[in-house]
Amino acid sequence: MNLLEAMEQRHAIRAYTDEPVDQAILDILRAEIDACNQESGLHIQMTTGLDDAFLGLKTHYGRFTGVHNAIALIGRPVRDGAADGHGAAGTNEHDAATETATGTADPSVAVDTIPDGAAAADEAATDPGEIALQERVGYYGERLALRAVQLGLETSWAVLDDADAAEHPWWCLHPGEKIVWVLAFGHGARPGGRRRSKPIEELCRIPDGMAMPDWFRAGMEAAMLAPTSLSQQPFLFTLHKDGTVSAEAMEGLFAHVGLGCAKYHFEVGAGRENVRWRDTAASGEEAAGATD
Q: At 111, is the pLDDT very low, low, confident or very high (cuts 50, 70, 90)?
């Protein structure tokens, strides 16, 4: 199954069986997590085989059952001087490869999370560092979700309420880090529901008089398959006259995480060799020119 097929196959599954995930598959996921951490500067961690991988915590949206395996998408907001794009956002104060995917937390590590002054869970983030973190989580989290689907598993994104207050977490947080989202995965207990999407014309803009290039259309068709909260698809892709592409989050729940998912899908669908992302500030200046 290639990535485009995995996008078609992926559904948000919230009920899982007790069938354990094969060790060879877990090893592949661990290797993928290590690669994502190395590229992104995130501190993604995985646990498997628990009675309740959500530790009894409520989920912000949706009801889950039988979640024995999960991936915690953890990071700290990107600050000035960190890398742009999807590369490493500064360096963590640890060797990511040694602590990802172990499913064990070091109790000697102090827990220091982002204060409540950051954007509330279902409010659009306004802090640039928080926005960059959420987009990065969406981008690399969806990469992991699709890899799991390729391996024959089901997945679902979730937000754990009060995750910072969990008594015996299987994850560890380094100073300044927070759990942004989690991914449940395993063998689904029931099939996914129907997928719906807005028309492509509502999700992208191209210059007036220009025919939509095949690569851009393919990227948009892939982006339309990306998961977003309540299927709101709060994103807009713009093709500029110079061939660069910009993507922005619109109003909607967890819009920046959804944008990160959509950007990963877009790159896969369009072909990464065809995509040249435009700087956000520059795209804002010329947004009107996209339809001139």
A: very low
